[in-house]
Amino acid sequence: MVLPRFITAVLVLLILPLSIQAATYNAIKEYSGATFLDDWDFYGHYDDKMNGDVNFVTAAQGVSEKLAYVDPNTSRTILKVDNTTTVPYPEKRNAVRITSKQSHEVGSLWVADIYHAPYGCSVWPAFWSFAQDAAWPAGGEIDTFEGVNLHPTAQMGLHTEGSAGCSQINPTQLSTLVNTTDCAGTNNAGCMVTNTNPNSYGAAFAQQQGGVFITEFAESGISIWFYSRKDIPSSVTQGATSIDTSTLGTPMGNWPAAGCDINKAFQPQNLVFTVTLCGDFARPENIFTQTCTGKCYDDWVIKDPSSYDNAYFDISYVKVFSTNPSATQSSATTSSGATGTQTGAQASSSNRSDKLKVTLLSVPVVVSAMLDLLML
């Protein structure tokens, strides 16, 4: 049966908006400059979450040992692994993990401008988020960036509680390497996607002066974009007061709400930067020997400290945006105060990944399609 053209056009309008959603987010919080570290908690404990061979320093240690500081020449924040101390067996090397004091709800988007990210044999860096007030993986986890050892690219993904029933279904994304689709999975492995941009990790990332990661945490789904520095869209600047996702193109990873009830599976997210050594992801022999030689701890953590000369984050800024008009607009300015606290985050465990994003079409495009149908 052939439907009347007008009815066909109406059906198009009814169906398309379910999958083609763009949104404008307004700036509510910025972490940058001399006060970057003021609104983050230092873990201040050995790595008992990812089982890494590090002691995460307190704020005071971070300052005194020059492992967490703002570079006075660039005003960018440095978070690093100790690369000067010879660590005796069976001790652990000092490193940094920080968690934002403020959590960010569904309807948020955050931008991280990073010039350098840690890499090297035994190194496992990540920029991610989780529900600090929930017992992991309840409350969900979003992994924006995660690298390991000397692997050439990073990965992205979600971790959710099994009862949430989350999976990656029909994503619209640039990545062609989907590692897992069940967001719980065996041993909470999550639904992970490889960032197929060749400059997303390691020496290539550093040579390109890093880039920008954007995470959208929305009811319609979760999306992650990555741009090397030369490819950052003109709409994405530190001074931007809003971001329209229709200007961002197709995300690298996308997890639509069709496969996951975001409000059910995720609680407000605290942002995290961490770099650990070995641990559940970098240590296993089947992973470590893909790009490195020897034993993760024996031949790297307690040997030449200069092996960690590249194990540092160099962060220009992190900026959070929201669609919630009642969000605190005054916090859109740079945070202020002293250098962080020593409170430990209640954090998660290993392996992380990415998600997919829907095609972004504006309402005028849909209306134009309907008019074309009417003219037939």
From TrEMBL:
Single GO BP term: glucan catabolic process
Domain (GH16) ranges: 29-326
Ranges for region Disordered: 329-350
Alphabetized InterPro entries for the sequence: Beta-glucanase-like (IPR000757), ConA-like_dom_sf (IPR013320), Glycosyl_Hydrlase_16 (IPR050546)
Signal sequence coordinates: 1-22
A GO term, aspect molecular function: hydrolase activity, hydrolyzing O-glycosyl compounds
Keywords from the named record: Hydrolase, Signal
Chain segments annotated as coiled-coil in the UniProt record: none
Family matches, as Pfam families: GH16_XgeA
SUPFAM superfamilies: Concanavalin A-like lectins/glucanases
Protein name: Glycoside hydrolase family 16 protein
Native organism: Coprinellus micaceus
